[in-house]
Amino acid sequence: MPSDKSLKVLLWIAAVYHIVLGLLGVFAKDATVYLANVAFNFNLTLNNEMLWVINPFAAYLLVFGVFMAVAATDPKKYKNIIYAGVGLFALRVIQRIIFVVSAPEGLISSVDPIRNTFAIAVVAVMGLSMFLLARKLK
Fold first, then answer.
1. Residue 109: pLDDT over 70
2. What is the phi/psi pair of residue 10, to 5°?
């Protein structure tokens, strides 16, 4: 597959993933609790404080997904958006590693280390692939 097509596929995957999570966070809080447990091995308890955190976080997810979708429509034109997305992916990898190293035992003990390593690897590979493929664009 040509590199520009590969980049578009990665961008659309990132777009759909973030748009779906953002929409769930904004409109389907109960689904967010279920998803946090099933997909992220995290027991989320909805209380007023957590709702206060989820709403803006979900909005950011949604907007980031829209930016990835825009970039997917014309990666050459929106290369700077791709690089911003790569920066966010890099930050997420660093954040996740810091979590693994420094999270309180009661919190980290509930996170499966294999799933956590896999999540870090997926985000790192996505970000690195987007970066390398975007650099090839003329």
1. no
2. -60, -45
